[in-house]
Amino acid sequence: MIKAVVYPDVLIAAAKRLCVKRIWTDEEKMAVQAGLGSFFYLHQLPGKNVILQCMEQHPVRRNRQSRNIKDYIRNIQLKKLSLHVTD
Predict the structure, then answer these.
(1) What SS3 state is found at 37?
(2) How many structural domains are present in the chain?
């Protein structure tokens, strides 16, 4: 075990990396795009209240945190923008 007194920054950095990244399933992707699809095309990010309302409507979206859904939308938007810039 790492001692927090000796290396506090290393322990914090290591603790942040311990999160398990889950791959988005096709069902989760379709559920997010069905409920929040307009935000993909408007290049805007939904607020937390909008995301929470969508999470209540579809059980698949409950497997993710609101922050995960917002990050997913942001990543898709950035991917689309990078494709347009390189063309």
Answers:
(1) helix
(2) 1
Return the beta strands (E) in 24-85 as ranges: none
- Tell me: the pLDDT tens digits for 55-86? 888 888 778 889 999 999 999 988 887 776 65
CA 44 to chain centre: 14
47-56, long-range: CB within 8 Å, 24+ apart, which pairs?
Answer: none
Percent of the chain predicted with pLDDT > 70? 74
**Residue 45 domain flag:** yes
Residue 8 lies in a domain: no
Confidence label for 6 from pLDDT (cuts 50, 70 and 90): very low
What residues make up the domain containing 24? 20-86
